[in-house]
Design goal:
Elements lengths: L2 E6 L3 H12 L3 E7 L3 H11 L3 E2 L2 H8 L3 E4 L6 H9 L4 E5 L6 H13 L4 E4 L6 H11 L6 E9 L11 H17 L3 E9 L9 E8 L4 E7 L6 E8 L2 E6 L4 E7 L7 H6 L5 E6 L7 H13 L9 H20 L3 E2 L1
Parallel strand pairs: 1-2, 1-4, 2-3, 4-5, 5-6, 7-10
Antiparallel strand pairs: 7-11, 8-9, 8-15, 9-10, 11-12, 12-13, 13-14
Length: 332
């Protein structure tokens, strides 16, 4: 049985949401909406659905059961409340909202109207990240020591209302919590505007988790090639994830078996061991995300990214911005 779905906002991500819904056998794409009526008509023709320039008209005429909101961040609050108050389940592209207070209200409204609210933190659905999480849960790395994230690339033309911290850093802040099941307790960041006039386009941060693990974030819109990497250093080696290629590598710490106490004291550091490239069943993360959203709406699984997780990611991103303005660490 198919579920009636719609997409509000047809920027780069919204167009992809429309495409994937059209591809999914369990979804019936009943409409798309964008303030650019010609764009809405173009996408509607491509996927055999109805076009609207006013999202409220889409909601009232097509009566979808579930909706993706992929509009600019500053509009998430107003659009989300209109969807929720009609009793329609909603997937909001990250970040959840433009402010903490708006995010709290969205969550409360969803609870009051018995609506499933999921946030589009798409990297959770990257097969390489899911494989990494499984290895960490199996203790294949031993005690985690350090986490380092790089998310760099050219300026995205789609971006107009938030800076690089809210656009990019929220991904890694969420993933760090997701793979470690730990909370960030302290964060220090520096940001800068180097080439773009309205918001920060560079951010460098250090953080500490509650269990003592430390790490770094290196984020920008200034690098002429796209880099999406995550490194997890532990007692037994180093995991490296490439989000783009969906590769997962493990550089093992070689085991040393000294024969006497004197040798043990000399060689109690680490040594380079073998490199393992894990088999990862590659899949488009957005497709996996939307399949999970529809399954959660249908009651088949628990909500994989509830509103509360989106709110925590936004709080952490705001803490980075506050830290950079104060030039001091922020305790969460």
């Amino acid at each position: 049985m198919t579920m009636r779905v719609a997409v509000i906002g047809l920027g780069a991500m919204g167009r992809n949401h429309a495409r994937v819904y059209w591809e999914l056998p369990e979804a019936d794409l009943v409409g798309v909406a964008d303030i650019d009526s010609s764009l809405a008509s173009q996408i509607a023709r491509k996927y055999g659905t109805r076009a609207y320039s006013t999202y409220r008209e889409l909601l009232d005429e097509t009566k979808p059961e579930a909706v993706t909101i992929a509009t600019p961040t500053v509009t998430h609050y107003r659009v989300a409340l209109d969807v929720i108050q009609r009793g329609i389940h909603v997937l909001i592209e990250k970040p959840i909202s433009a402010s903490i207070n708006e995010g709290v209200d969205i969550i409360n409204q969803a609870q009051d109207h018995n609506v499933l609210l999921m946030i589009g933190h798409i990297e959770r659905f990257n097969p390489a990240i899911k494989e990494l999480k499984a290895h960490l849960e199996a203790n294949d790395l031993g005690k985690v020591i350090q986490i380092d994230a790089r998310r760099q690339g050219p300026y995205p033309e789609r971006m107009s209302d938030v800076g690089v911290v809210v656009d990019l850093a929220v991904h890694d802040l969420d993933i760090i919590r997701f793979i470690t099941a730990e909370e960030i307790e302290l964060i220090y960041a520096e940001t800068a505007q180097r080439l773009h006039g309205f918001k920060e386009d560079l951010a460098v941060a250090t953080f500490r988790l509650r269990d003592g693990v430390v790490g770094t974030l290196n984020i920008n819109w200034l690098t002429p090639t796209k880099i999406r990497e995550l490194s997890i250093l532990g007692e037994k080696g180093l995991f490296i994830v490439n989000y783009l290629s969906q590769d997962l590598l493990l550089y093992k710490n070689a085991t040393i078996s000294p024969t006497d106490w004197e040798t043990l004291q000399i060689f109690k550091g680490v040594r380079e061991g073998e490199m393992i490239r894990f088999v990862v069943n590659r899949k488009e993360p957005l497709r996996a995300e939307q399949e999970a959203f529809l399954a959660a709406v249908g009651g088949e699984i628990q909500n994989p990214v509830p509103g509360e997780d989106g709110l925590i990611a936004l709080r952490l991103a705001q803490a980075m911005i506050n830290s950079s303005e104060l030039h001091q660490a922020v305790r969460m």
